[in-house]
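FAQ: What does a ligand-bound record look like?

Like this one, built around tetrahydrodeoxyuridine:
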Amino acid sequence: MPVDTFTQIPEEQLSPEDAALLLKAREVALTAYAPYSKFRVGAAVILENGEVITASNQENAAFPSGLCAERVALFYAGSRFPGIAVKSLAIAVIAAKKEANRVYAPCGACRQVMAETENRQNKPFRIIFEGPGNYITWCNGIEPLLPFTFKLSTE
Ligand code: THU
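The answer part, i.e. the structure of the complex:
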């Protein structure tokens, strides 16, 4: 997969809409319930109708019962606004041990859910995430993050 499927730009060069969405993701990361990992994640989704949905990760003492911020946001969007396409999703991380040169890309399970969202709406959406350093990484559609994506027909 060619590297130019991702765009990496200094944060101050983000478009106003992308910057505003990332700010919302950062704000909502503060609401994370992450007493076990202390890794707080915020996700902000903007829909084609302009509606913005924000969510944070929610952990559980029975670890697999918790859920990532991205999935909380996408599942809520699908529940509250079925049929309205996702335009962009921004992801922000707040953690004491945040490494400067790392790219904070979404986990594999969230990528699969993003793929389903894209497939469902038949339209790619922008995925924006933090790093490396003061740069922001983004791509249009799930394919670069999840090549050879698994899909099932609903026909
Ligand atoms: N987490 C997310 O919310 N999103 C991701 O893409 C990666 C991981 C959460 C899950 C868990 O609560 C914590 O971060 C540490 O893995």
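Follow-up question: can I read anything off the structure? Yes, for example: Helices lie at 16-29, 69-80, 108-121.
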